[in-house]
Amino acid sequence: xRLSFIAPRPKPFLSLFSKMWVVFIxxxxxxxxxFNFYIVIExxxxxxxxxxxxxxxxxxxxxIDEDDEAIGLILRQKAISEEIFSNNTLLxxxxxxxxxxxPDQITLKKVxxxxxxxxxxxxxxxxxxxxxxxxxxxxxxxHTSNTTFYLTKEGWYNFVSINKIxxxxxxxx
Amino acid sequence: MNSFDxxxxxxxxxxLLIFLMVFIIITFMFVFLLIIxxxxxxxxxxxxxxxxxxxxxxVENLFLEREAELSKLKAENVHIIGAxxxxxxxxxxxxxxxxxxxxxxxxxxxxxxxKKEFVExxxxxxxxxxxxxxxxxxxxxxxRYSSIVQADFPINLxxxxxxxxxxxxxxxxxLNATTR
Lengths: 173, 180
Hints:
The structure holds 2 protein chains of 2 kinds.
Chain A: H1 16-101, E1 107-113, E2 117-124, H2 127-141, E3 144-151, E4 157-164
Chain B: H1 13-76, H2 78-85, H3 90-98, E1 103-114, E2 118-129, H4 132-142, E3 148-159, E4 164-175
Antiparallel strand pairs in B: 1-2, 2-4, 3-4
């Protein structure tokens, strides 16, 4: 016997109210999980970043060392070459000075230049010509200056003049 | 929607409270067990990352400075660097010296290490020349020669009938094998 005019309907397991709460809680949890996931991803990117940056920094430090080495080498090369170039120029100047020093009356036969000494062989018309024109300037340059004369058949004088600088500098007038 | 569901019309206070409790508990659990510790770690890592980044930037600036300095030095000393790298050959030197002297011969005397990364060769040069000015020009050109060469004492000049014969020493500087 039917007591109701309407057909029975199955009662939903969760009411609309409960469903809304479940969905709400579910959404909130999802949001939390997504937020957490985002943080975790960012943390791992920081970790990777730290490792990468450290590697890059170490590489740069090695390169800086290499650059320092290269700069040092260039500076040493520069120092040596400047010294050599100035030595060459000084040598040229001192040879030029020497030949300018020799007056026309005197003929040089042989010149021996050492770091600290200069030996000149030559012919002079008289001893005085040599003494006045060449010995005087030589004496002002060198610490000791000794000259020996030999009379030639023609009546001129062969001379050997040995000049020395006492010290380290050498002939760098 | 089911029109027979009247759960929204007549809200059950107890149910509401229970759901609210559940909601709050779950939220707090998420926040305290997951989010806060992770955020703390995140902050530490972020600080660490920034520190490393600053350090790296400083080193990078230093590196750029060094690079600039190096390239400037290289540009300023092109000739010198090239000359040290250029291998010294007797033939080339004889060709150069031939411009100033009539007869030139070279004899290698010694080869020794010089100041860490260099090699010093000593050679004796015997030559004949017409006037001393050839010798000056030779010395002047030596500074522009493709290797680093120094003319050195002892220098002997002897005049013959027509020419002057000279012997002198040259020192050649090269980079040694390890630096090259």
